[in-house]
Amino acid sequence: MLATFRGARLVLHLLVGLSLVLLVALDRSGRLRPEPLTRWWNSRLLWILNVRLRVRGQRLRGQHLIVCNHVSWLDISVIAASQLTRFVSKAEVQDWPIAGWLASAAGTFYIRRGAGGTKQLNQALSDHLRGGGAVALFPEGTTTDGSALLKFQPRLFAAAIDSGSPIQPVALRYGRAGNGENIAAFVGDQSLTQNLRRLLKERELTVELTFCPPIRPEPGQDRAAVAQLAHSAVCAVVAPQLLQALQAEARESLAA
Fold this sequence. Notes:
The protein is of the alpha/beta class. Helices cover 46% and strands 15% of the residues. It contains 9 helices and 7 strands. The longest helix is centred in the first third of the chain and has 25 residues, at 2-26.
């Protein structure tokens, strides 16, 4: 009964989202900023799913790059509901019905495959950051179950370095369902529909959002080194034992 009621509200909310997509498309003046609309829509989505946010740390405002660990498709809604920002996504999302329309209306930047794709994207990100905007990305490149952290890919950190923008690492940690299962993680062979059905059935889900101290890269600083700093900051929150192991391994390599 709970899942059916929430499902009906979700369908209505998707229709509202599509109306906003049309509104943005018809705004020829360009005065309608997508970020506030995106924040409102995602806040309502979390309310419908009864996802409770617990925010820790001090979030940056204005020009900055947000880098976050990736656990679920919900990550986007969690960040968007707490921050005025745009996102970076793989190019395939642009062609998805509904999800792709919503993403494009929100001003998403797309990673395109092939020669020059990353260079063009970094230029677009740099321009947006220099204009005072914020951009969020998931440098692991894929989702995990949230218990560990994959390597951060450094290529998109170049936009923050080139534009002189601070970087804010953000750590996401989802609570467990009432039966102890990790239902938020979008991993394995499950489909989006299957994952959403599990969320609709759950009475409440909590997520802890930790804004780590910002990193302020120097001009020309090595992007791999900056990516490692961001990785360590997030890892200290979501997987401190892994961070200790990585630091011990690094010390042994230096001593060898």
